[in-house]
Amino acid sequence: xxxxxxxxxxxxxxxxxxxxxxxxxxxxxxxxxxxxxxxxxxxxxxxxxxxxxxxxxxxxxxxxxxxxxxxxxxxxxxxxxxxxxxxxxxxxxxxxxxxxxxxxxxxxxxxxxxxxxxxxxxxxxxxxxxxxxxxxxxxxxxxxxxxxxxxxxxxxxxxxxxxxxxxxxxxxxxxxxxxx
Length: 180
What we know:
Blueprint: H1 2-33, H2 47-63, H3 69-92, H4 98-119, H5 129-143, H6 150-162, H7 170-179
Helix pairs in contact: 1-2, 1-4, 1-6, 2-3, 2-4, 3-4
């Protein structure tokens, strides 16, 4: 059982790490070098949206691992609505453009779907759904109110690598594009 659990955890870690790296690189490219897509107002993949779109459906799928595949996939599909709710909130709060949250949703769902497809070959461990839900509950309770300064970390690394003192800013980027 322990070997199967480690294989599942390793698979999740690999897929999730690739997605995190894509989010970080997309944001750093804009912050440090002004690389984005002005036509669709894209300056980086929405990390919050990617996280929600990857984690919630995967957690639902894993929590019901003793049930039929059909029920597990239905639960994951239902949990996708949480990812979409986060995406909508990011646009409503003006934290991201529609293109950035669409990219976040697509990447998060890709992580989840890839995990589901690839993990079926591994025949995962027999964990209690209640234990998984408790673990996620404790994780979220522990993070409640805490804010990691990830955006500052990305900004500092991007500026250092680009040799710049100031980051590119969306509003200035658009204003300068209108002058060209």
